Amino acid sequence: MSAIVSVQNLRKAYAGGFEALKSVNLDIEEGEILALLGPNGAGKTTLISTICGITVPTSGTVTVGGHDTQKAFRGARALIGLVPQEINLEPFETVMNTVRFSRGLFGKPRNDAYLEDILKQLSLYDKKDNKVMTLSGGMKRRVLIAKALSHEPRVLFLDEPTAGVDVELRKDMWEVVAKLKASGVTIILTTHYIEEAEAIADRVGVINKGEILLVQNKADLMSQMGRKQLKIELSAAVETIPDALADYELTRADDGFSLLYHYDTKGERTGITTLLADLQKAGLQMKDLQTQQSSLEDIFVGLVKETT
Ligand SMILES: Nc1ncnc2c1ncn2[C@@H]1O[C@H](COP(=O)(O)OP(=O)(O)OP(=O)(O)O)[C@@H](O)[C@H]1O
Question: Where does the record locate the signal sequence feature (predicted)?
């Protein structure tokens, strides 16, 4: 796979000097779904709108399909579909006219068959002649997606696509995104919902205070999530971990009153049975045992906290 979007040393300082992006580097592979996770004000929208060439960066470059978004804006923008956070539709216009007009703005020849196909994919076809104002909030969100796809973009940016929508619609939207990916569209979405990133992303990026803290394959993150920790509370503190237990991944905690054992829940063996037997052999007395599972949420919260 090759990068369809390449972001290099991107900085954005707003008027007044606030640095919303601090030297961001990011390559987005063709055909992937990348979820950008981050708390409020992290810089997600700024990053997306700068990549799309709507916000002018203070320094750095962005290329989309090889076009520099500053020097070759039209070429880059033609490849991009952007679904904004806010619903910005013409209320008195019909759904079909909305998407037709949007396609026309990009200078694309009329192609109702293509637009109807998009509307079908988004379960909007039977509403095509309805005025936007008569649609529910969730349907309006779908119209935003249809509008963003009207000019056949190769990269689709979705800024908080499921903010404020109910669980059922959220799952429908995930299906829509999966279908778009299957049709070859590269997708970048921002979200607050960790479960959303878990459900649909190929890679997850965590952004906080204008910096990308991590971009990782979801499967790798999942294997981290599969790690569990066993806390062994001891009756008496240990100064060091006994040599007899050197083969185990153990760390001291609580001034030596506890030992922490990390293990992979997906491994065939956890090693706990032999560890407990070996603890006894080493003469250590257990007081209590507790297990704890690390989740993507823990990883996310931990990362964000570290930079706060
Ligand atoms: N036009 C602007 N002028 C000045 N500061 C701005 C402007 N737009 C955004 N900011 C600031 O830049 C920071 C990043 O904002 P941004 O909207 O990119 O965050 P976000 O991660 O998308 O947040 P949210 O999840 O709340 O949508 C915030 O502190 C915000 O106040």
Answer: none
Q: Is the CB–ligand 1 distance for residue 45 below 6 Å?
A: yes
ipTM of the complex model: 0.95
Residue where a domain terminates, one of 169, 202, 223: 223
To test the pocket of ligand 1, the residue of 44, 212, 307 to mutate (highest count of ligand atoms within 8 Å of its CB) is 44
The protein residue whose alpha carbon is closest to atom 7 in ligand 1 is 14
Considering the domain architecture, whether residues 184 and 285 belong to the same structural domain is answered as no
Please work out whether the CB of residue 14 comes within 6 Å of at least one atom of ligand 1: yes
Tokens standing for residue 31: 């055909």
CA of 40 to the centre of ligand 1 (A): 8
Whether 288 is covered by a domain: the verdict is yes
Q: How far, in Å, are 192, 224, 293, 301 from residue 298 at the CA level?
A: 14, 10, 9, 5
- pLDDT digits 0-9 by tens, 216-257: 998 887 677 667 888 999 999 999 999 999 888 899 999 999
Look at residue 60 in the predicted model and tell me its pLDDT. Answer: 96
160 and 271 together in one domain: no
Distance from residue 210's CA to the centre of ligand 1 (Å):
9
Q: Name which of 218, 225, 223, 198 is nearest 292 in CA terms.
A: 225
Is the separation of the CB atoms in 199 and 173 below 8 Å? no
Same domain, 232 and 186: no
